[in-house]
Amino acid sequence: MDDQTQPSPENNSDQTVEIDLSSTVLDLTSFQLHDLVSIEIPPTLTELDLTANRLSSLDPRISHLSNLKKLSFRQNLIEDAAVEPISRWDALSGLEELVLRDNKLTKIPDASIFKKLLIFDVSFNEITCLHGLSKVTNTLKELYVSKNEVPKIEEIDHFCDLQILELGSNRLRVMENLQNLSNLQELWLGRNRIKAVDLCGLKCIKKISLQSNRLTSMKGFEDCVALEELYLSHNGISKMEGLSTLVNLRVLDVSSNKLTSVEDIQSLPRLEDLWLNDNKIESLESIAEAVAGSRETLITIYLENNPCAKSSNYSTTLRHIFPNIQQIDSDIFA
C-alpha cells in the first residue's frame, strides 16, 4: 500500500481507515472487516486484497475499478448468492487474478466477464462439481480448486495455455480430460481416490503430485520425459517401475508405500532428493547399484522406518555411497 495509514488487524469496520486516493494497491489483509463502509476505495487501484476479513457480500464500488488486475476475497464468508453480481461487472473485464479461496461457495462462480484472466482460485470451499469452468476464458494459466467435493475432472478442455492445475483433496477417482492441456507444467492431485495413472498423452509436464491416493502401480509416467518432481507418497505401491526414462527427474518421493527394494532409477543422472522412508526395504547392499546414475548428484535421502535403517553402519554406509550427500533423514551435514 502506498502512503496509507493502516489500523491494526484488531480494528473493526466501525473505525476509519485513511486511504491515499492515488494508491494503486490496497491491502486490507486481516483487518476483520464485516463490510467496507468505512473504507474509501481509490478509483486508481490495480490490486485489492481483502484476505482474512469477515465479508459476506461484495461492495458494489469495486465494480467500477476499471484498472483492477488483482482481486482477492480469500478467507471470508462469501456464499454463492453474494458472489453472483460479479458476473455483471463489465468494468473489471481486464482482471487477471481472481481469488475466492476459503469461502462458502458450493459452485464455480460465473467468471465469463473476465476475458484476460490468468489466475483463478476457488480452493477450500464446498464446490461439488466443475460445472461453470467452461465459461472461464481460455487465457487461464493457473487454476486452483483444491479442498472441495469435486468427483470428476471436466470442463477444462479449452485451457490450452494452462500451466498449473490444482485439484488436490477432492473426491476424484479417475485422471481424465487432460489431453488438451499441452502446456501444463504442474499437476496436483494429492488426497483423492485415484487408482491408476493416466496422463492422457501429456509429455511436457514437470511436476506431478499423486500423494495419498489409491495407487498400486507406478506405470503411466514413462512418456513424461520432462518430469522434474514426482510425489507418490502414501499409496499402496509395491514396486518401483516406469521411471528409467525420466532423465530430468530431480525429486522422487515414494515414501509410505509397500516397497521392498529400490529399482528402475539407476540411470537417472539428475536425482537430488530421494524419499524412501516408511517402506519395507530390507538391505542397503543394493542401494549403490540401484542409484548408480545419481551417486554424485544426490544430496538428500530418506530411508528411516525401513528395516535397512536399523543397520549399525547405516549413516556411514550412505555417506560413503553418496559423496555429496547433505541430509540423511533428519540429520543434516555441513
Helix content bin: under 10%
Q: What is the CATH superfamily classification of the domain at 218-334?
A: Ribonuclease Inhibitor
Would you state the CATH class of the domain at 218-334? Alpha Beta
Strand content: 5-15%
Rg result:
24 Å
Q: So, CATH architecture of the domain at 218-334?
A: Alpha-Beta Horseshoe
Instruction: List low-pLDDT spans.
Output: 1-14
Helix/sheet category: mainly beta
**Roughly what is the average pLDDT, rounded to an integer?**
94
Sum up the overall morphology in one term.
Answer: elongated
- Main β-sheet: number of strands, strand sense, barrel status? 15 strands, mixed
CATH topology of the domain at 218-334: Leucine-rich repeat, LRR (right-handed beta-alpha superhelix)
What is the rounded distance between the termini? 41 Å
How many E-type strands? 15
Helix tally equals 3
Order of helices and strands: EEEHEEEEEEEEEHEHEE
The order of strands across the largest sheet is: 1-2-3-4-5-6-7-8-9-10-11-12-13-14-15
List the keywords.
334 residues, mainly beta, Leucine-rich repeat, LRR (right-handed beta-alpha superhelix), 15-stranded mixed sheet, 3 helices, 5% helix, Protein phosphatase 1 regulatory subunit pprA, SDS22/Internalin_LRR, leucine-rich repeat, repeat, Leu-rich_rpt
